[in-house]
Amino acid sequence: INAEYMGTLSECLFFFAGQCPRPGVAVAVPRNAMAEIVYMYQKPRREFGRHPEFQDCDPEVLIDIHPNLETQGAFLHQDPYETELQCVPELSEAQTNTERIMLKPQGMAHLEGGWPAGVDPTEIENKIKYTKKAEREEGYVTSCRALVEPSERYIKQNNAIDIYEEYFANATIDHSSEPPSAKTVTVFSDPSPVKRTAAHVTWLSDGKKLVVAYSIMKFQGNMEGMSLKSHIWDLNNPNAPEMDLAPLSPLCCLEYNPKDAHLIAGGSYNGAVQFWDTRHPAQPVMKSNMDDAHKDPVYDIRWLMSKSGELISVSTDGRVLIWDIKKMDRPIETETVVLQPKNNDGGPRGMLGGVSLDYDPLVGGPSKYMVGTEQGTTLSCNRRGKTPAEKIGQCFNGHHGPVYSVMRNTFFAKYFLTVGDWTARIWMDEIKTPMFVTHYHKAYLTSGTWHPARPGVFLTTRMDGTMDVWDLLYKQTDPVLSVQVSDYSLHTLRVQQDGRLVAVGGVDGSTNLLELSPGLSEMARDEKNVIGQMFERESQRDKNLIQRQREAKQRRRKSGGGRGERDAGAVDEQTLNELSEQFMTEVREEQVTAQQRQEAKLAWRADVLREVDSAGPAFPTEADPAA
Q1: How far apart are CA 399 and CA 415, in angstroms?
Q2: 354-358 sheet: strands from edge to edge
Q3: Which of 442, 461, 348, 438 is nearest to 401 (CA)?
Q4: Nearest-CA neighbor of 303 among 361, 386, 384?
Q5: Dihedral sign computed on CA atoms, order 594, 600, 602, 608
Q6: Residue 372's closest CA among 314, 450, 443, 430?
Q7: How confident is the model at residue 365 (pLDDT cuts 50, 70, 90)?
Q8: Could you tell me if 453 and 460 are in contact, meaning their C-beta atoms sit under 8 angstroms apart?
Q9: Does pLDDT of 23 surpass 50?
Q10: CB within 8 A of 66, min separation 6: which ones?
């Protein structure tokens, strides 16, 4: 009803319900305008519902339908009868991948502009001449004053209110209550048609690029058509590698130069050592000769802190070689170390094969490095040693298989981590037994590393595709986070320098980039002191136990009537060699005796066969039952 004609309802409107085309239609017209239709509302009467009651009421039966006995025979009785009803609509779930966008870096040159058409900006004299002419004009001073006034006002405002002030610059956020987590950011896939193992990963110092070495680590596993290239990846473009490194043999390890980010060193499967300059990556700058290189694959390589530039490499051929990048044809002979420790109590003897290497001049010193061997022994070495015995210091035995990773703690240099067999172990330089051992996992451990930003956190990878994060500040018996990174075995991992991103390489050729939660990547308040006290307490406990064992041995020696070390269990090298030679002599004599017996037996058998042949039929008959 039009509000213009609103008034007293009885005086203003007439309702012609009887003259409408359909029942239930009301037409309202003003008294003074019978022919003009102002508003019409139309709806069938059967669609009008009941009036709503805005209050609670008892249930009411609206309709009751009784069964029809005539149609009862057309149905079957089913007892019991089960049915399912849902109060929400059924929805389906579908997944789709967005279309990949190929990114390409593109540069832009910003040239000098704004000069009139008659002035050449490349000519300095023309620019100076035009500038002096503009300064002599009458409006120049006026224009400068007009520009100075608003600029001065804005500067005074910034002095009054610092819009770039950080109000909480020194505030620390406590993430201890947040659950630890890690999410996959991106995946770098091997572009080769023949899938290879992501054997080694290293980060650029700024954390924006990473280099992945690809190789097939199985013996004689190289296939025809397999690419030999390793790749440099940009984190912002995971679709294609930014640069390729083409060696003559697949690379097993790579390492950035910490001083010069353009230099990358690599060790090959055939034992060669080389390095590249990323400004000219088509071929290595220099490489070693095959005659003087390693005889087995180079499993780890590091840059040494020196003025000329030196490399250290380790291989399962039992040698540690140091190279001068200015003369890469052969290693420095005086620096070569043969991994054959003179005294390795409780460990394997002979030459040991190296599979992992740790060198950090800021942590362990410029001359000290550690080597993990495939026999389960970890060696502490020193370049300043004059003799082979002095170059190989202490030996740490405990693993039942190859030590795939060894690394010193970034905050506490005398503590180091080793990963091998089914466990990860934390050691101290002064103690030959581990002070912390993880539980035995169901799957083999393949790699491990300390977190660069947190002293009590380390990460490990397993063959079942799981990455474990251990935080000794909160839990020592189990990892605080286990992430199923891949369905394939994981081979290597490396943490970014700021500790936020982790690159994990697998045997399927994929390198997964994971982002750790702030609770795992940021140091907690007073964490360094707490972890340091924990390490000191555990190391002191182990020292006390060792001292008690020594005292117990001394008491047993005194009570045994002064027996020597040989009776107490210690055997010198000469006695051991004599026993070994005696045992081998007995074995050879036993082999000769057994061979003589075998020859006599064969001769007797031949004589028996000849007698049987000369006796006549081979089978007895009824006429000669004695036969």
Answers
A1: 17
A2: 354-358, 368-373, 377-382, 392-397
A3: 348
A4: 361
A5: negative
A6: 314
A7: confident
A8: no
A9: no
A10: none
370 vs 186, 355, 360, 450, 476, CA distance in Å?
Answer: 33, 11, 10, 15, 25
What are the structure tokens assigned to 542, written together?
């182990």
Q: Are 394 and 380 in contact (CB under 8 A)?
A: yes
Average pLDDT, the chain: 83
Provide the CB-side half-sphere exposure for 308 (13 A, CA): 10
**Residue whose pair of structure tokens reads 């630890």 in the numeric block:** 180
Exposure letters 248-282 (e unless 16+ CB within 10 A, then b): ebbbbbbbbbeeeeebbbbbbbbbbbbbbbbeebe
Q: Is the pLDDT of residue 24 over 60?
A: no
**Amino acid at the residue 511:** T
Measured distance CA(431)–CA(409) in Å, rounded: 16
Q: Up-side HSE of residue 274: CA atoms within 13 Å toward CB?
A: 23
Cβ–Cβ < 8 Å for 407, 416: yes
Q: Nearest Cα to 103, choosing from 221, 236, 289, 302? A: 236
CB 454 within 8 A of CB 440: no
Residue 303, token pair as written in the block: 């840059």
List residues bridging with 323 in a β-sheet: 311
Query: Mind listing the pLDDT tens digit for each residue in 95-123?
Result: 777 777 777 888 877 677 778 888 888 88
**Is there a contact between 190 and 196 (Cβ–Cβ < 8 Å)?**
yes
Nearest CA to 271 out of 211, 323, 315, 221 is that of 315
- Nearest in space to 311 (alpha carbons), one of 327, 320, 324: 324
Q: End-to-end CA distance of the chain: give it in Å, rounded.
A: 138
Residue type, 230: S
- Nearest of 345, 398, 339 to residue 370 by alpha carbon: 339
Q: In the chain, helix, strand, coil percent, each to 5?
A: 20, 25, 50
62 vs 50, 59, 65, CA distance in Å?
12, 9, 10
Q: Which position has the token pair 């640069």?
A: 243
The sign of the CA dihedral 605, 611, 615, 616 is positive
Record the tokens describing residue 7, joined without a space. 């008034």
Q: Is 376 left (phi over 0), alpha (psi -120 to 50) or beta?
A: left
Structure tokens at 352: 């040991």
Alpha-carbon distance of 542 to 537, in angstroms, equals 9
**Phi-psi map region of 561: left, alpha, beta (phi>0 left; psi -120 to 50 alpha):** left
- The two three-digit tokens of residue 457, written as one number: 């956190």
| DSSP code, position 4 | G
Q: What pLDDT sits at residue 10?
A: 38
Residue 33 — very low, low, confident or very high, per pLDDT cuts 50/70/90? Answer: very low
Measure the CA–CA gap between 165 and 171, rounded to whole angstroms: 14
User: Number of C-alpha atoms within 13 angstroms, CB side, residue 9?
Assistant: 2
Which pLDDT score is estimated for 572? 63
What contacts 421, CB < 8 A, 6 or more positions away? 376, 399, 400, 401, 444, 445
